[in-house]
Amino acid sequence: MPAGSDTDTPALSVSARPAGGLTRLGGWCARHPVLVMAAWLLALTAALAGRHAVAPAFSDQVSLSGTQSSTGADLLAAHSRTAGGSSGHVVFHGPSGAVTSSPSVSSSLSGLAHLPHVTSVSAPVVSDDGHTAYTTVRFDVEAKALGHDYTRQLDRATQPARDSRLKVAYGGDLDQVTRQPADDRASELVGIVAALLVLLLAFGSVLAALLPLVSALIAVGTGFGVVGVVAGTVSFATSAPTLATMIGLGVGIDYGLFLTTRFRQDLMDGHDPVSAATRTTASSGRAVLVAGVTVIVAMLGLCACGLGFIGKLGFAASLAVAITATAAVTLVPAALSLTGRHIDRIALRRPIAETSGDRDGWHRYAARIARHPWRCLAAGTAALALLSVPALSMRLGHVDASADRAGTTSRTAYDLIAQATGPGFGPGANGPLTVVIDLGTHRSGTSDLATTLQQALRSAPDVAQVTTPTSTPDGRLLTTTVTPVHGPQDASTTALVTTLVDDTLPSALHGTTAHGYVTGTTAAQIDFRDTVRQRLPVIIATVLAAAFLLLMTVFRSLVIPLKAVLLNLATTTASYGVLTAVFQWGWGSSLLGLHEPVPIESYVPMMMFAIVFGLSMDYEIFLLSRIADLWHTSADNTRSVGAGLAATGRVISSAALIMTAVFLSFTSSPTVVVKMLALGLAVSVVLDATLVRLVLVPSSMFLLGRANWWLPDRLERRLPHLHA
User: I need a surface site. Which of 3, 266, 269, 645 has the fewest CB within 10 A?
Assistant: First the structure.
C-alpha cells in the first residue's frame, strides 16, 4: 500500500535554502542583460577565431603500450628499416586481360614510389584471373598524418592506370587518408529544426521557443571553438567535435527549456521579470548545475580507464557540457530578463507553463500510479529487462571498410580484394596478421624453427595463407604474414588471433628462448577491444560512486541516489540491448545506411555508459528536485511525488523529445561510430523519459514513502551543504 502523509521532516536540503551564490549570480545577470549577452558573443567570436588560428588536427591513433601487438610492432620498428610507419593498398582492376601487363600499371607504381613519405612499393599481388592486382605502399609516418590532401597526390601517381580505363582504389590504412572528413552540418541542421518545432509546440510562443535554442547555439558554438583550441595541444579523436556538438546541443536546449518554463511560471504567479529571472536561476539553475556536474563527472570518469583515446573524448564532451551549463545560468537569465513579459507576445496558442491545475492529466496519471505502485513497478522492470536481453550477446569489435558506403574508394578496394581469388586475396587479405618472433639467444637452427613455425601457423583454424618466415637484416627476428579466411571484423578472425597468441605460438616455440607476437592493424584492434572490456568495470564503478556521492549530498538521502544509480544502470543496459539488436543483429540497420550487421565498436559501450548515465540523471534530477522542494514544504510523500511529477511532466517530456530528435538527426552521419552513439543515446533518452521517469521512479517513491528521505544523522552532519 503506498505511503501517505509523513510527519517527520528531515533536515533541509539545498532546495530549501534559496539564498546563495546562484541567487546573486542570477540577480546580477538579470539586472545587466546587455552586458552579459555581449560578453557571450565576444566569447563565441574569440573561441571560433582561436580555433581557426590553431588549425587543430585530430587523430584516431591509439597507444596500447604493453600489449602483445604493441610489443611486436615495436620490435619490428627497431629491427627492420621498412617496418615503421604505416601501409596501404593500391588496387588495380580491369574487366579483362592481365592487369599487370598494362604499361600504365608500371607507370603508376613508379609514380607511387616517388611520392613523399613512401619508403617502399611492393611487387603487385595478382589474382588467379589476372583481373585484379594490388601493391602494398609503406610510409615513414602514420597514414593519418599524411592528411586528406594527400589523396590528390595518390590520384596523380595512378592517373596512367585510369587513363587506360583501369579501376583504381585505395585500401588498408589509406582509408584514413582518402575518407572525407566527417561533415555533420546537415545532421546538426536537422536537429536544430526538429528542436525548434518541439519548442514551438511546447511553449506556443515564438520568443519562448527561440530563446533556449539561440542560447544553446551560442554555447555550443563557443564549446566547439574551445574544443578546437584545446586540440592544438591535446590530441583528440576525429569524432570529438561531433560528440561535443551533439551532447552540447542536446543538453543546452534542454537546460534553456527548463529555465524558461520556470521563468514563465513565475511571471504568471505575479513576479516582475528581474525577480522571476533571479528566482529561476536560484531554483531551476541549481538543478541545471547539478545535472551538468553529473554529466561532467560521468564524462571525466572515462579517464579512469587509462586509455588516453577514450579519456580525451570524455574530456572534449565535458568541455561542451561545462560551457552550456554556464550559459544556462548566466546567458539564459539575462535573455529572460531582457525579454520580460514580451516572451509570449508572438503566441501561436495560449501560453502554458509548468502545470494547468491540480486536476490536469499529469495529476490524474500520478494518482493512477499511486493506486497501483507494485503493478507499475513490476511492469516497468520487466520491460527494461526484456530490452536488455540482446546485450547478453553483444560482440565488441572494429567496424572495417566493408561497412563504408558503396562507391567510396575504401569500400571498393575492400570488395575487389575480398571477391578475387588466389594467394593474397579473399576477405582475410583486408586484415592480414603479422607474426613476429623475437629469437632472443636462439640464433642457431633458425631455418628449422621457421619450418616448424610455418607448419604450426598453417594448421591453425581459419588460416587461408602463411608466407615463408624471413629474418630481419640483423637476424634478431623472424617475420611472416598470416592471412585469415574471413574479414577483419568477423568473429572467427578474433578467435584466430587469440588461438595464435595463446596456443599456436607458445607450442611452436616451446623449448626455445624465442617469443612470438601477433601484430598489425587487426591484432591491435583486438587488443584494444580486450583492454576496453577489462577496464569497463572500472569506469562503471567510478561513475556510479561519484554520482552516488553527488546525489546523496544534494538530496540528503541514501535511498534516492541508490535508486537513481540502479535505474540508470538498467537504462544503459537496455540501451545496449537495442544497440546490439540494430547493429549486430541487423534489425533495421539498413535504415542507417548499413548493408550488413556489424559488431559494436569496441569503445562505444564505455562511451555510452558515461554519456547515457550522465544524461539520464538530468531528468531524474529535475524531477527529484521538484519532489524534494514539495517534500520539505509539506512532509507529505504521496502529495510531493504526485505534484512533482505533474509539475515537471510537460517540460521534461518536451526536453526528452528535443534531445531524442537531436540525437536521431546524427544517425545520418557518415561515421558508423557516431551512428551507434547517436542511436544509443536517443534510445536511452526515450527509456529514461518514459519507463524510468513516468513509471519506475514514482512507483518506487510511492512504495517507500518517508524512507525515500532516510539519511543517518551522523552522515547528515558530515556532508557539506550546497547553497543555491
Answer: 269
Q: Give the residue among 504, 658, 694, 522 at the shortest CA–CA distance from 599.
A: 522
Cα separation, 282 vs 329, whole angstroms: 9
Residue at 103: amino acid letter: P
- Whether the pLDDT of residue 484 is over 90: the answer is yes
pLDDT of 60 reads 72
CA–CA separation, 692 and 290 (whole Å): 19
Contact (Cβ atoms closer than 8 angstroms) between residue 127 and residue 421: yes
Which residue, 339, 353, 355, 332, is CA-closest to 22? 332
**Contacting residues for 313 by C-beta, under 8 A, at least 6 apart:** 236, 237, 239, 240, 243, 302, 603, 607
Tell me the C-alpha distance between 495 and 465, whole Å. 16
Between the alpha carbon of residue 299 and those of residues 224, 296, 320, the distances in Å are: 17, 5, 11
CA distances from 178 to 60, 186, 382, 407, 520 (A): 15, 21, 47, 13, 20
pTM of the model: 0.85
The pLDDT, as a whole number, for residue 342 is: 87
* Rg value, the chain, Cα: 29
C-alpha cell at 349: 496558442
pLDDT band at 444 (very low <50, low <70, confident <90, very high): low
* Whether the Cβ atoms of residue 516 and residue 454 lie closer than 8 Å to each other: no
Main-chain dihedrals φ then ψ at residue 136, nearest 5 degrees = -100, 120
* Cα gap 337→340, rounded to integer Å: 5
The burial class, CB within 10 Å (0-12 / 13-18 / 19+), for 475 is exposed
Q: How far out from the chain centre does Cα 511 lie?
A: 46
Model pLDDT for residues 652-690, shown as the tens digit of each residue = 888 888 889 888 988 888 888 889 999 999 999 999 989
In whole angstroms, what is the distance from residue 109 CA to residue 121 CA? 7
